[in-house]
Amino acid sequence: MSALDELRRAVARRRNAGDEHALDEWGGVDLAGLGWLLGRRLARGALLRARLGDAAGRVFCERGVRVFHPRHVCAGRDLNLEADVEIMGLSRRGIVFGDRVTVRCGAMISPTGIFGGELGEGLRMGDNSNIGPYAIIGCSGFISIGARVLMGPHVCLIAENHDFDDAGRPIKDQGVRRAPITIEDDVWLGAGAIVVAGVTVGRGSVVAAGAVVTEDVPPGSVVAGVPARLVRSRADGPAAPGDGGSAASSAGR
Is 162 among the catalytic positions? Predict the structure, then answer.
């Protein structure tokens, strides 16, 4: 094995211990570019890490990241914040990231209004999970995201609903009701999926692109549609070509 191959494997293992061949097709110039990118993010992340409530390891941070009330944010190892991420830390239970969590570009985590108001509950994320590009995590009600959760772009998790029962009053004046959202381990939320307050998405489930989840999803399910309905159970095996069970193929990443 050449020195370059050894470097590829070493970097790949640091990225993901279970896939040491992930960078086998990268050339030397490509690896150098990756090193420059990671070094730049690490330098920015070191400044942010010093302001966090707790951080167990390195923080990688791109340009345009804004973290308000960072002492309420705790991170595991290798937190990666991409460009233009916005995080409001101020909340009753804080914002807690597990190991190797990535928050993709333009995502927003918002438990509490920037300019005041009642404190929201906060967010907890498990190891090896990601928040997708331009996602909105409205964690005024508590949101728990498990380990190894995949999330596509423009996903919305909103843990509160506006009251609107009194037709004689403006909706804005009637307040909100908060309820927790739970996304269990090994879930895939497709592009543009919406999960509303009070819902649990069970372990190993797939939510198709554009689905609106208004009820609990049993573990190992594939759901799609508005409102989301059960398409099939993953325990039944792969969907036959052309049937409705192939919703996972449209889930987006």
Answer: yes
